[in-house]
Structure formats: C-alpha cells, structure tokens
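Interim report to the steering committee. The following record documents the input for Phosphoribosylglycinamide formyltransferase (213 residues).
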Amino acid sequence: MPTPLRIAILASGRGSNFAALLAAHERGELPVEFVLVASDKADAPVLQLAQGAGVPTMVLDPRDYADRRTYDFALFDRIAASKPDLLVLAGFMRIIDGDALKPWAGRMINIHPSLLPKYRGLHTHRRALKAGDLEHGASVHYVTAELDGGPVIAQATLTIETGDDEATLATRLLPLEHQLLPAVVALIAAGRLTLGEQGIAFDGEPLRKPLRW
C-alpha cells in the first residue's frame, strides 16, 4: 500500500473543516495521516477536537514574539518538525509573512469562503450580499504570499436566496466547505493535483479553470 499523505492542520477556531477531514478519513475516503494540529490560540476548540482524535497538537502564542515575521518563522519551523507532506489552513485567521511561506510552495492549501478572486480577506458573506451577487461559494487554493491570491484548485457554489443575511449564508455554505476540502485533499493524496512553475496540473494536464463541486 502507498504511504499515506502526512497532513498538518493550522487553525484558529472551532475546527469544523478539520472535523470534516477527520470524518472523511474515518469513512475510508481520505488515505492520510494527521501528524499535527497547530493553532495560534490556546483556547481554540480545534485543539480539543484533535486531542480527542489522538492527533498531536501544538500552540504558539503570537504575543510571545516581537513581530509577525519572527512568529511566523518560529511557527513554521515547529510545523516542519512534524514532517508533513501537506499543510492545510482550515480557518487560520492570520496573514502570514511571505518569506516564511516560500519553503511551502505547492505544499500548502487554504479554504476561503468566497468565489475567488472575489472577496479576498474578511467579511466575504457581507460583501457578496452588499454587491447584490446571485451566487456565492467557497474556494480551495494553494497558498502564496498574496493574501487569498494563490492558484485556485476547486470551488463549490450556491445560489443566494431572497432574505439571506450573513448568518444564513454562512450556515448554508459550511456544508459545501465540508465536502470541498476533503475532496481536494483526496485528489492531492492520490497524486492527481500538483502545483509547478506552469501552474496547477490535474491528472498531468494544466488545470484551465477551478474544479467545481
């Protein structure tokens, strides 16, 4: 049997996307090994979730460091010690120093609650509603130094309904995120998705537009 893909998770909150990855793994749909869940917040519920699943955890508090750059290098040094093949940002609420990201090129993905390149950054549901969009969604992309600007791998979409507000839109989108992220990780684990100098390749061919779920 092939060696399972070693995955580290970086998250700041409750960890619902990590929970979706765990569930897919338990169903036999995700041939991976979770080697670490790291967070910038000691009280993040994702840590309890990981501990309950027997996954090693690590917390690094940004307040213990002089600046963001110093913190980011320390954080990624510790993550690297767990020897992950892939680092998944699953609700990590910090902007990361571009130089700290360089060694992870092609080995780090993020899930973002918008149809990128629309609405990078925060408050994506609010911005979609304010713009009068008819469609909203989530994107999984490779991480680069540009905030939410890396190559987009796949997207899930939903129709914005009359009467939707930020809360209802977020609630309806979350189950789609929980399908999208495990599906992308499964493709990476199978060796079907890679990122090189020419961009994303899917099954050995250039990916001209994001996969859709």
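The two ends are 29 Å apart (CA to CA). The committee is asked to note this result when reviewing the revised timeline.
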